[in-house]
Amino acid sequence: MSHSNSLRAYTDCEKLFQSALADPKGARACLGTYEACMQLRGRMNYFRTLDRKANAETYDRGHPMHGASIYDPYIVQILEDEEHEFWLYIQPREANILVIEGLSSLDDNVTDTESHEVHQLEDHSNGKA
Which of these, 10, 36, 60, 127, could form a disulfide with 31 (CB 3.0-4.6 Å)? Predict the structure, then answer.
């Protein structure tokens, strides 16, 4: 079944996102089953897509909201509690950045940034022990 293209069909999604915006840590909704959470999460993400499209028509190019949604910084995930009830969590993304420094404030002697780069390691063992 395809999703409706009308923003008015997603008032439940907008209400959940607004609840998450109102609390610094976000919001959650108990839906009971994993399947119900999956369905609503899909609707939440599609609502966000429609909101972006509406904002692309509302705001001029160059405006920060052109093609963007105020709900973009939020992740929507499904978590199970101890009673085996499933919840939809709507939370702001967090990077857990400890310190941000401008490169101009660093010592002039720090010029070799490649020596500090972390590279991803690949497993070439083919499952052999």
Answer: 36
Question: Is 0.85 surpassed by the pTM of this model?
Answer: no
Q: Quote the CA–CA distance of 65 and 21 in Å, as a whole number.
A: 16
Range of the domain at 75: 7-106
Provide the number of structural domains found in the chain: 1
125 belongs to a structural domain: no
Q: Enumerate residues 6+ apart whose C-beta is below 8 A from 21.
A: 70, 71
Q: Are 28 and 81 in contact (CB under 8 A)?
A: no
Q: Are 79 and 86 in contact (CB under 8 A)?
A: yes
Residue 19 in any domain: the answer is: yes
Which tens digit of pLDDT belongs to each residue from 32-81? 999 999 999 999 999 999 999 999 999 999 999 999 999 999 999 999 99
* Domain assignment of residue 1, yes or no: no
- Residue (of 45, 47, 37) closest to 14 by Cα position: 47
Cα dihedral value 20, 23, 25, 30, nearest 10: -50
Residue 64 lies in a domain: yes
